[in-house]
Amino acid sequence: MNYLTGEEMHVGDRVLFGGHAATVVVVIDRGEYGPGFVAEDWSDQEHGFLMRTDDGTLYMYDVADEDVRLIARAAQ
User: What is the pLDDT of residue 18?
Assistant: First the structure.
């Protein structure tokens, strides 16, 4: 899973999503799940990623489009 810029997406990345700050919490394609998220809960999804906005709203997407922009890389 990559951003439109070609950079790899990882759990913990900070993104702008439709003008709102969010954190990537699941990247199904990479098998990455943030704290509180487990693979079994997303087993019906073959690919995609989940973002949590700063107000706690969750958004699931199949691909990163022009509305999802990386603003800070996850801490390694």
Answer: 84
Residue 25 resides in a domain: yes
What pTM was estimated for this model as a whole? 0.91
Q: Answer yes or no: is 47 within a domain.
A: yes
Please give the C-alpha separations between residue 38 and each of 3, 27, 34, 72, 75, in angstroms, as whole numbers. 23, 11, 8, 24, 20
Candidates 49, 65, 55; CA nearest to 10 is: 49
Range of the domain at 35: 14-72
Summarize pLDDT for 9-34 with one digit per residue, the tens. Answer: 999 999 998 889 999 999 999 999 99
